[in-house]
Specification:
0% strand, Hypothetical protein af1432
Length: 157
Protein backbone atom coordinates (compact mmCIF):
# COMPACT_ATOMS: atom_id res chain seq x y z
CA UNK A 1 0.00 0.00 0.00
CA UNK A 2 2.91 2.35 0.85
CA UNK A 3 4.26 1.63 -2.64
CA UNK A 4 0.90 2.53 -4.20
CA UNK A 5 0.73 5.81 -2.31
CA UNK A 6 4.29 6.66 -3.39
CA UNK A 7 3.34 5.86 -7.01
CA UNK A 8 0.23 8.03 -6.76
CA UNK A 9 2.17 11.00 -5.34
CA UNK A 10 4.85 10.70 -8.02
CA UNK A 11 2.15 10.53 -10.70
CA UNK A 12 0.30 13.55 -9.35
CA UNK A 13 3.34 15.79 -9.01
CA UNK A 14 5.57 14.58 -11.84
CA UNK A 15 6.97 17.31 -14.12
CA UNK A 16 9.53 16.44 -16.75
CA UNK A 17 12.80 18.36 -16.87
CA UNK A 18 15.40 19.00 -19.57
CA UNK A 19 17.72 16.60 -17.74
CA UNK A 20 15.15 13.84 -18.13
CA UNK A 21 14.54 14.59 -21.82
CA UNK A 22 18.30 14.39 -22.34
CA UNK A 23 18.39 11.06 -20.51
CA UNK A 24 15.63 9.69 -22.77
CA UNK A 25 17.38 11.02 -25.90
CA UNK A 26 20.54 9.19 -24.86
CA UNK A 27 18.88 5.82 -25.23
CA UNK A 28 15.98 6.18 -27.69
CA UNK A 29 16.02 7.00 -31.39
CA UNK A 30 13.42 9.37 -32.89
CA UNK A 31 10.81 6.68 -33.61
CA UNK A 32 11.19 5.20 -30.12
CA UNK A 33 11.01 8.67 -28.58
CA UNK A 34 7.76 9.37 -30.46
CA UNK A 35 6.28 6.24 -28.96
CA UNK A 36 7.65 7.00 -25.48
CA UNK A 37 6.20 10.52 -25.47
CA UNK A 38 2.75 9.17 -26.31
CA UNK A 39 2.71 7.75 -22.77
CA UNK A 40 0.98 9.84 -20.11
CA UNK A 41 3.35 12.14 -18.21
CA UNK A 42 3.02 10.03 -15.07
CA UNK A 43 3.98 6.86 -17.02
CA UNK A 44 6.92 8.67 -18.60
CA UNK A 45 8.08 9.65 -15.11
CA UNK A 46 7.71 6.09 -13.82
CA UNK A 47 9.62 4.68 -16.80
CA UNK A 48 12.46 7.20 -16.38
CA UNK A 49 12.76 6.38 -12.67
CA UNK A 50 12.84 2.64 -13.48
CA UNK A 51 15.47 3.23 -16.19
CA UNK A 52 17.64 5.37 -13.90
CA UNK A 53 17.51 2.64 -11.27
CA UNK A 54 18.46 0.11 -13.97
CA UNK A 55 21.47 2.20 -15.07
CA UNK A 56 22.98 1.72 -11.61
CA UNK A 57 22.76 -2.06 -12.02
CA UNK A 58 23.63 -2.46 -15.70
CA UNK A 59 24.48 0.52 -17.88
CA UNK A 60 23.82 -1.09 -21.24
CA UNK A 61 22.02 0.84 -23.98
CA UNK A 62 19.60 -1.93 -25.02
CA UNK A 63 18.79 -2.77 -21.39
CA UNK A 64 18.01 0.86 -20.58
CA UNK A 65 15.97 1.17 -23.78
CA UNK A 66 13.84 -1.73 -22.58
CA UNK A 67 13.47 -0.09 -19.17
CA UNK A 68 12.31 3.18 -20.74
CA UNK A 69 9.87 1.40 -23.02
CA UNK A 70 8.66 -1.36 -20.68
CA UNK A 71 5.16 0.13 -20.22
CA UNK A 72 4.76 1.49 -23.73
CA UNK A 73 1.83 -0.88 -24.29
CA UNK A 74 -0.20 1.57 -22.21
CA UNK A 75 -0.21 4.24 -24.94
CA UNK A 76 -3.66 5.19 -26.24
CA UNK A 77 -5.50 3.31 -23.49
CA UNK A 78 -7.84 4.64 -20.81
CA UNK A 79 -5.44 3.54 -18.06
CA UNK A 80 -5.20 6.95 -16.42
CA UNK A 81 -4.36 7.61 -12.81
CA UNK A 82 -7.99 7.45 -11.72
CA UNK A 83 -8.64 4.15 -13.53
CA UNK A 84 -5.47 2.60 -12.16
CA UNK A 85 -6.40 3.58 -8.62
CA UNK A 86 -9.92 2.27 -9.13
CA UNK A 87 -8.56 -1.04 -10.45
CA UNK A 88 -6.27 -1.44 -7.43
CA UNK A 89 -9.32 -0.88 -5.23
CA UNK A 90 -11.65 -3.33 -7.05
CA UNK A 91 -8.90 -5.97 -7.21
CA UNK A 92 -8.06 -5.60 -3.52
CA UNK A 93 -11.68 -6.02 -2.49
CA UNK A 94 -12.52 -8.52 -5.23
CA UNK A 95 -15.33 -6.35 -6.60
CA UNK A 96 -17.05 -7.51 -9.80
CA UNK A 97 -16.62 -4.91 -12.54
CA UNK A 98 -18.96 -6.36 -15.15
CA UNK A 99 -21.24 -3.29 -14.71
CA UNK A 100 -18.68 -0.94 -16.26
CA UNK A 101 -17.37 -1.18 -19.82
CA UNK A 102 -14.83 1.53 -19.01
CA UNK A 103 -13.40 -0.46 -16.10
CA UNK A 104 -13.37 -3.68 -18.13
CA UNK A 105 -11.49 -1.90 -20.89
CA UNK A 106 -8.99 -0.46 -18.37
CA UNK A 107 -8.46 -3.90 -16.84
CA UNK A 108 -7.92 -5.46 -20.27
CA UNK A 109 -5.38 -2.76 -21.11
CA UNK A 110 -3.61 -3.36 -17.81
CA UNK A 111 -3.49 -7.12 -18.36
CA UNK A 112 -2.38 -6.96 -21.99
CA UNK A 113 0.04 -4.00 -21.96
CA UNK A 114 3.17 -6.20 -21.92
CA UNK A 115 2.09 -8.09 -25.05
CA UNK A 116 0.83 -4.93 -26.71
CA UNK A 117 4.07 -3.11 -25.93
CA UNK A 118 6.09 -5.96 -27.41
CA UNK A 119 4.00 -5.84 -30.60
CA UNK A 120 4.41 -2.06 -30.87
CA UNK A 121 8.18 -2.35 -30.43
CA UNK A 122 8.33 -5.09 -33.04
CA UNK A 123 6.45 -2.85 -35.48
CA UNK A 124 9.10 -0.12 -35.12
CA UNK A 125 12.04 -2.51 -35.47
CA UNK A 126 13.35 -2.88 -31.91
CA UNK A 127 15.67 -5.78 -31.14
CA UNK A 128 14.40 -9.17 -29.98
CA UNK A 129 16.28 -8.54 -26.73
CA UNK A 130 14.24 -5.39 -25.97
CA UNK A 131 10.97 -6.94 -27.16
CA UNK A 132 11.51 -9.98 -24.95
CA UNK A 133 12.16 -7.91 -21.82
CA UNK A 134 9.08 -5.75 -22.42
CA UNK A 135 6.87 -8.73 -23.22
CA UNK A 136 7.81 -10.51 -19.98
CA UNK A 137 8.21 -7.68 -17.49
CA UNK A 138 5.24 -8.85 -15.40
CA UNK A 139 6.31 -12.51 -15.23
CA UNK A 140 6.23 -13.97 -11.75
CA UNK A 141 9.53 -15.82 -12.11
CA UNK A 142 12.33 -16.04 -14.66
CA UNK A 143 15.89 -17.29 -15.15
CA UNK A 144 16.73 -14.32 -17.38
CA UNK A 145 19.13 -12.12 -15.33
CA UNK A 146 18.32 -8.87 -17.15
CA UNK A 147 14.59 -9.49 -16.87
CA UNK A 148 15.03 -10.08 -13.14
CA UNK A 149 16.83 -6.73 -12.83
CA UNK A 150 14.11 -4.93 -14.79
CA UNK A 151 11.32 -6.48 -12.70
CA UNK A 152 13.20 -5.60 -9.49
CA UNK A 153 13.57 -1.96 -10.57
CA UNK A 154 9.97 -1.75 -11.83
CA UNK A 155 8.66 -3.05 -8.52
CA UNK A 156 10.55 -0.38 -6.59
CA UNK A 157 9.19 2.54 -8.61
FE1 LIG B 1 4.05 -2.78 -16.75
Amino acid sequence: MKYRIKQLLYALFYRSSKKEHDFVANYLNDIEKNLFYRLRGSEQGHSIRVAKRCVKLKDDSEFIKAALLHDVGKVDTNLNLFMKSLLVFVEKFNIKISFSKTLISAQESKNSHSERGAALLKSIGCSEYVINLVKNHHKESTDNKDLKLLIECDNKE
